[in-house]
Amino acid sequence: MNMRADIKIYEETLLKVIKYLFKSRIFNLLTKKSSGLFLRGKDIISVNPQIFGIHEEPLTNLIKHYAKNGYKDFLIDIGANIGLTSCQNGIDFEEIHMYEANPLCCNILEVNANIALKSSQFNIHRYGLGESNKKCSLTVPKHNWGGAFIRDKDNSYNDNILASKDGFETIDSKNYFEIEIIIKDTEKELKELFRSLSQKGLNQGLIKIDVEGYEETILNGIANSIPSDMRFVIVFESWDNNFNLTKVINAFKGKCVAKKINRVVPWKKEWSKIRKLFSLLLKPTIHTNISDINYDNIIGDIILEIN
Q: Please, what sign has the CA dihedral across residues 47, 51, 54, 59?
């Protein structure tokens, strides 16, 4: 049987080689400060960690602020995803607990946590928190695994909010995939965790919640489970200006003070893009502050100080 000596399987032109070298050089320059964690290319949450080495810098600095001011015993990350917040901020805390319902993310979360943290420092809980124990479906945007949500009666967001937060007009199945997850009773799970932390003398910490509409359910569970000797800060993201923050505050029975992360810019919202740019040239600084809550605008990162 005769065989040909050479079989062409791939061809490179000089132009293609030049393009490859140029793009590789640019990519290396752009990502020289990359966080070093495992990230998913083209995913929304991966862009800043790859280019700037940090995820959600205002939130990261907020957590550092509270850790430096006494709330450093524990970090509870509810909706940990692949661990960007915990891996960035965990070094400032004695003990870290990460809750993540998506089993695919949990695999990456475990790797990233072992890269960034001491193995004795963290615990990964491979389930989500909700009103009761159940199995349900998690809807995951294909371009944003960090935006996954549970579309059921316990989610306070309507379909318009759930779609628009990820840049869609409607919830179209082609933009998502579904995966079965486990949810456990928030009150029961956190009562046990708080008891364990208290026994170790870990009574002051921070809870970060990122659960795409399950915030109210989880906050009520926290309110019903905290021991009297515990002080902590809760930070969560709100996409709904009709979120019933007053109801949540009342659930903590006078122990809660609400604040917000505010971005202070040198322009007014109604100004044109050109006028905004010009105002930034005249005053080239944008501040991010912890401010008293304005109940007319509760979209953004909300802070609850529980004392």
A: negative
Distance of CA 92 to the CA centre of its chain: 18
Full-prediction pTM beyond 0.85? yes
Distance between CA atoms of 233 and 259, rounded to whole angstroms?
10
Per-residue confidence band for 132, with pLDDT thresholds at 50, 70 and 90: very high
Q: What is the CATH number of domain 56-306?
A: 3.40.50.150
Burial of 146 (0-12, 13-18, 19+ CB in 10 A): buried
d(C-alpha 284, C-alpha 106), whole Å: 40
Chain segment 153-168, per-residue pLDDT in tens: 999 999 999 999 999 9
Q: How far apart are CA 214 and CA 157, in angstroms?
A: 8
The full set of domain ranges for the chain reads 56-306
Closest CA to 97 of 216, 212, 192: 192
Is the model's pLDDT at 1 over the cut of 60?
no
- 235, exposed or middle or buried, with CB in 10 Å at 0-12, 13-18, 19+? buried
Q: How many angstroms separate the most distant Cα atoms in the chain?
A: 88
Mean per-residue pLDDT, 214-224: 97
Q: Quote the pLDDT of residue 282.
A: 87
